Amino acid sequence: MISVRTLVAAALIVLAVVAVFFLLSSILSIVLVVLVAIVFAEGIRPLVLRLHRRGVPMPLGIVIVYVGLLIFLGVMVALLVQPIVSEAQQLAGNFPTYQKDFLKFFNNLESQFHFNVNISQQVGSFLGAAQQVLVAIGTTIFGLVVNFFLVLVLGFLWLVSSERLKSFVVDLVPPHQQLLATDVFREIGSRMGGYLRGVAIFAVVIGVATGLAALVLGLPSPILLGIFAGLAGAVPLVGQAIGALPPVLLGFTMGPGYGLLVLAVILVLAMIEANFLLPVVMGRVVALPSLAVILALLIGGALQGLIGALLAVPIASALQVVLVRVVVPSVHRAQGRTPVPSTPFVETPRRPLVSRAAARKLLRRP
Asked: Is the dihedral angle over the CA atoms 196, 202, 204, 207 positive or is it negative?
């Protein structure tokens, strides 16, 4: 028999879960901003710690890093704003010609291979959707600027108070597991920060490579194409395809053979980046299987669009650390099995412990 007390307790638990769900859904935008601030703060933590080791107080070190980042962004904007505006005006002026050439090319393919797609209507709907997206981007610039400064403030507060917060949480853990909890927090922070730095490096390389390829191939507006490819490259997996679409379409407006040439160059760059750059920059830091990355991107994109896709990988990486280091050993102990000891997280030292000359002398000794 189920007692009334049990039923009341179960009903209260269900109501509490529903209340927490609705509370999180109502403040989800704030939670996302906080997560972005934490990832950003962990990304610049090595710079702040390097200044702190040289005697600079932590708050002053954060301000120095912030000032350096803002100066760098200001210099980049000052150098690129004039070329971007001029190329955007040129692209907008020649856009009807590009549209006409692309429709002519596709109509020739349609007549040769005898299929009917009504490409004019498709292009018109695509341009209408693109115009709506541009208007939406223009109306949300103010919100992005406000969120940017909010991320800076929250990142500052996180860097200043995160160690005390981690110490408080670790103190709640049983004494024999406090070392593991400290190491789990350190690994989660390192993976989140490494992900941000890896995404920044990857996006810069993709943008520069695409811009240089567009310049060499004679495509219009190479700076705009490079910047768009770099921004799109910040989205894992699908970003490269999105960033490669404009140069390929512009190539086909200049001729079928030219479009295929652009497509071949973009594919070669994508293969080089995927096989050499991506494993080095991202694989060692995030250490997620490809299936987990795809599932995280699909879930994050379905829940919160672009922001959800950007935050999906570091959140999935943090969950993987908790699962491998905490949950799996606990399940093994509950089953009476001997848990496999988790490998402590140790950062790779920047300098070798023994110099090469000393190592050679040690090897020569009998």
From this structure: negative
Q: H-helix or E-strand containing 153?
A: helix 141-171
pLDDT tens-digit map of 94-121: 667 766 766 676 667 666 666 565 555 5
Neighbours of 282 (CB within 10 A): 20
Q: Measuring CA to CA, how many Å separate 198 from each of 10, 151, 236, 268, 313? A: 46, 19, 11, 21, 12
- Nearest Cα to Cα of residue 221 among 84, 102, 127: 84
Q: Which of 247, 218, 221 is nearest to 93 (CA)?
A: 221
The answer for 305, left when phi > 0, alpha when psi is -120 to 50, beta otherwise, is left
- Is residue 347 pLDDT above 50, yes or no? no
pTM of the model: 0.68
State how far the Cα of 52 lies from the Cα of 117, in Å rounded to an integer: 62
Q: Give the chain's mean pLDDT.
A: 76
Q: Is residue 116 part of a domain?
A: yes
The crossing angle, in degrees rounded to 10, of helices 58-113 and 222-233 is 110
Which letter does DSSP use for residue 345 in this model? P
- Neighbouring C-alpha atoms within 13 Å toward the C-beta of 202: 29
8 A C-beta contact, residue 225 and residue 266: no
Of 99, 83, 74, 70, give the one whose Cα is nearest residue 226.
Answer: 83
Q: What is the rounded CA–CA span in Å between residue 33 and residue 27?
A: 10
Backbone angles phi, psi at 116, to 5 degrees: -125, 110
Statement: residue 77 has pLDDT above 70: yes
Tell me 175's DSSP state: G
Rg (C-alpha) for the chain, rounded Å, is: 26
pLDDT at 35: 87
Residue 21 lies in a domain: no
Q: Does 356 fall in a domain?
A: no
Tell me how many domains the chain contains: 1
Residue 83's domain spans which residues? 30-340
Whether residue 24 lies inside any domain: the answer is no
